[in-house]
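Attaching the record inline, Q. Sequence:
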Amino acid sequence: MNCKYIIFDLDGTLTTKDTLKDFSLFALKKGNLSFFWFIFLMILLKIRLIPNPTFKRLYAYFCLKGYNEKFIKKVAKDWFNVRGQKLIRKEFLGDYSVQQGIIVSANFDFLVKLFAKYLGIKEFICITLEIKNNKYTGKVSNIIPYGKNKIKIVTKEFGYEFLENAIAYGDDESDRDLLNVVKKGILVK
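Structure, as predicted:
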């Protein structure tokens, strides 16, 4: 099966576990106390009181609001160098110059960019945060690429032909819609 494009989910697909959770615990251990909210929000998510997109919006508000963009990017880079690189599944380390790779993730850009750069993947779609005066406002500035929204966003950015000529990798039920519309969808376990 000849496909021109590869679409990757990040958490649990390219990586062995949830990167936001790992990053948040790293930031908390470094003394950034607002990340304590992450634990409470994660409990709400796990017992299904809030869906993933709501979790991400609340995370942006309670954990990131007021932080300087450069500071969060530095903490993220420190985390990536110490922990993040080790979370990448070995089978996805490779050359993506032959096929155009893209990461489509319901994770934040300050994390997704690090993985994309490390893997040599030039394109990514993820959560973008609103910034004013170099500080996070606590608001998400785009549609969260989760579930069916992944299809809408990829189609808007690249056209439906992109999906028709793509292999997609996902690990979660929320990736199922995307995996069903591409030329070949692969569920990673």
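Strands lie at 5-8, 100-108, 123-127, 129-132, 135-140, 166-170, 184-187. The CA atoms of residues 96 and 121 lie 7 Å apart.

More tomorrow.
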